[in-house]
Amino acid sequence: MSKQYKQIGEEIWKNRVEKINAELFTLTYGSIVAQLVKDYEDYQEVNKQLEKMGYNMGVRLIEDFLARASLGRCTDFRETAEVISKIGFKIFLNITPTVTNWSSNNKEFSLIFEENPLAEFVELPEDGAADELWYSNILCGVLRGSLEMVQMQVEANFISDVIRGDDQTEMRVKLVKYLEEEVPAGED
Amino acid sequence: MYIFDRHCVCIYYQDWHRHRKSGAGSGGGGVNSAIGTTSTTTSMNGQIEGDSGGSSSSPAHSSAANHLTSHHSTTSQLTSLTSIFSEGRMINIEEEAKLVYGVVFSLRNFVKKLSGSQDGFLAYKTSNYKLHYYETPTGLKFVMNTDPGIDSLRQILRQIYTSFYVEYVVKNPLSPTEHLGGEGVNNEYFKAAVDKFVKTLPAYES
């Protein structure tokens, strides 16, 4: 099953995606974060803003993803995780994070990023950023936004980040609940 | 064609009124098949006649109003169809959209309970029209009414979604993501592109 996803992801990346310069992307993201840090001067606030930006992006990104990938609904959360890592990230960032650390109730998993295109060439400043700022927090927001549009409420946050000096970049994704569809207001 | 978003609001409506020859020998299966909202013609008629008479039942969406008036010229030719439905039935566009949504929603739940698998509800056909339905996992619903003779338009609806909706609406940073207050999709490129696309379909006949 997962091999199939991998193939789908690669095929879409090869054929149906417009590619841009990776360095341009990295530098643009870097300048966004730098500007946010300068404006807010509070790293927690910057984290929140990044997550919010990611959320808005995710809400639209999911439509683009569905249009390209033409997949039906995922049957369970495990499948969702596979699809996200092998197709979603592949299409948009050309990386495939590994899915690990499933919790016992299959409602949580970790994504381990071997390479993070957002954080190439990045060094965090000395003034306490290394303890507070999650540089790639926008990805958490993107996941939250896009999964919310397909009726899954999740929480995503980073646990470790290479640019902070940890061993690996790891994001924890937790399924809170499945959302119910909206019913139109009755007019009886 | 209608587009409903996941909050059960009709965000887009466009119709391509076709002039139906009365009692036309529509032999040759589908020669005269044209895309038109036949079941909704009276309401459209009523609406447009109301508009031209100055007593407009206010449509909920400004985009809908634009479409109504732009197709005004073709509707004056529709005579045969008004006799089919009772004359006094003037439902405005908002009511009509709600009715369509209600039908579609109930049918979808019904089919889902019966078959359980994904995307059971594809289309339904009556003697007057055929309704094609496509839904995305995000809850966006595309509905198109056509002549009964046409084959499944699901792929077409899907194509409208991927090539036009995603391109022009989703990727437009200025278009709202949540449509409050019946604002709808008010996007020139989208309208024009969909219009052009539909007119080139083999099922469309001018």
TrEMBL record, chain A:
Keywords: Endoplasmic reticulum, ER-Golgi transport, Golgi apparatus, Transport
Any one GO cellular component localisation term in the record: Golgi apparatus
GO biological process: Golgi vesicle transport; macroautophagy
Protein name, as recorded: Trafficking protein particle complex subunit BET3
Domain of life: Eukaryota
InterPro entries: Bet3, NO_sig/Golgi_transp_ligand-bd, TRAPP_component
SUPFAM superfamilies cross-referenced by the UniProt entry: Ligand-binding domain in the NO signalling and Golgi transport
Stretches assigned to coiled coil: none
Source organism of the structure: Funneliformis mosseae
Major subcellular location class: endoplasmic reticulum
Family assignment from sequence similarity: Belongs to the TRAPP small subunits family. BET3 subfamily.
Subcellular location: Endoplasmic reticulum; Golgi apparatus, cis-Golgi network
TrEMBL record, chain B:
Listed CDD domains: TRAPPC1_MUM2
Cross-referenced InterPro entries: Longin-like_dom_sf, TRAPPC
GO CC list: endoplasmic reticulum; Golgi apparatus; TRAPP complex
Pfam families referenced in this protein's UniProt entry, alphabetically: Sybindin (PF04099)
Keyword Transport in annotation: yes
Gene3D superfamilies: 3.30.450.70
UniProt record similarity statement: Belongs to the TRAPP small subunits family. BET5 subfamily.
Record text on subunit structure and interactions: Part of the multisubunit transport protein particle (TRAPP) complex.
Compartments reported by the entry: Endoplasmic reticulum; Golgi apparatus, cis-Golgi network
GO BP terms, alphabetized: endoplasmic reticulum to Golgi vesicle-mediated transport
Biased composition regions of type Polar residues, renumbered to the chain: 37-46
Keywords of the record: Endoplasmic reticulum, ER-Golgi transport, Golgi apparatus, Transport
Stretches the record annotates as Disordered: 23-74
Name under which the protein is recorded: Trafficking protein particle complex subunit
Low complexity: bias regions: 54-74
Coiled-coil intervals, chain numbering: none
Major location (coarse): endoplasmic reticulum
